[in-house]
Automatic annotation (TrEMBL):
Residues 1-156 form the N-acetyltransferase domain. Keywords: Acyltransferase, Transferase. The keyword Ubl conjugation does not apply. Pfam families: Acetyltransf_1. It comes from the Bacteria. InterPro entries: Acyl_CoA_acyltransferase (IPR016181), Bact_Acetyltransf (IPR050832), GNAT_dom (IPR000182). This is GNAT family N-acetyltransferase. Coiled coil: none annotated. The lineage of its organism: Bacteria, Pseudomonadati, Pseudomonadota, Gammaproteobacteria, Oceanospirillales.
Amino acid sequence: MEIRKASQNDIDSLLNLNCQIGEFHYQNAPTVFAKPSSEEREFLLKAISDPDRLFLVATLQNKVCGFITATITKNEAVPFLRKEPICRIGTIVIDEQHRSTGLGKALMNKCYDWAVSSGASQIRLEVMEFNSNAQDFYAGLGFKTQSRIMCQAISS
């Protein structure tokens, strides 16, 4: 297993992984998520080249089998929120055939190290209610529910 910075040469593998997670989310919450589309190539290429974003891949035998993205944000506007850097995980996905192999944990550990070196006070992520496997994974790494996003559909 190797964890390394993503490169533009990884784009086809990243699109495949993004499609896996995109289809899963679309099937479970079509009112929130769009079907994977051709726009994702440009989105991922832009994310890879963003110097302020962590974008790592996990490989097995030189094949990309997972990736993680994260950014550091700092509240500057809301007076009742602390003004500390926070690492926000955008996406983590492991190929369906390679789940429960330690790749996700290895990516999360590298993200943790990056967050510490970036001065972050905590790591945050959003996980959908329907994704119980991901919730269990994060709980196993010590994550706790801090808040809950709620919504109500508006019918026309």
